């Protein structure tokens, strides 16, 4: 987790607070563990199938069973980027969410995060538009792109 929380791209393009507070990793993961019990969020480690090396996280920050919608996300270590890790993780996470009965899956991606947008496209997500000035981090408002996928999408 130290590598994830010290990665400039993770800090730039995610909701991880900057500076990262002491004990954040423990609190953050406990929040996901509690969310798993309540069915409102979940998280999975991305691990190399051969070496068992930690490569990142596949996240479901929001699961709404009543509306059958989910928000998904992924964080991949810099050393694992460019190898299809994020695409494989998102594809597996998407299949998992549909398997849980979700009928709409959303990705919220920074307008500046070209890599994450390529991952979304590779995994069959559809760009819906820009949510203007929707995210506040370090006193700066940012535009976020909305990408979605439905079970009926190819």
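^ structure tokens above, recovered residues below v
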């Amino acid at each position: 987790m130290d590598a994830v929380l010290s990665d400039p791209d993770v800090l730039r393009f995610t909701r991880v607070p900057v500076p990262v507070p002491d004990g954040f990793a423990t609190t953050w993961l406990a929040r996901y563990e509690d969310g798993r019990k309540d069915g409102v969020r979940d998280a999975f480690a991305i691990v190399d199938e051969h070496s068992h090396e930690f490569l990142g996280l596949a996240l479901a920050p929001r699961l709404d069973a009543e509306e059958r919608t989910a928000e998904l996300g992924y964080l991949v270590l810099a050393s694992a980027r460019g190898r299809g890790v994020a695409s494989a993780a998102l594809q597996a996470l998407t299949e998992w969410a549909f398997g849980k009965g979700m009928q709409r899956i959303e990705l919220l991606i920074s307008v500046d995060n070209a890599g994450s947008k390529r991952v979304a496209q590779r995994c069959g997500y559809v760009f819906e538009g820009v949510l203007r000035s929707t995210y506040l981090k370090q006193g700066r408002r940012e535009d976020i792109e909305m990408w979605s996928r439905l079970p009926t999408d190819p």
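The radius of gyration is 15 Å.
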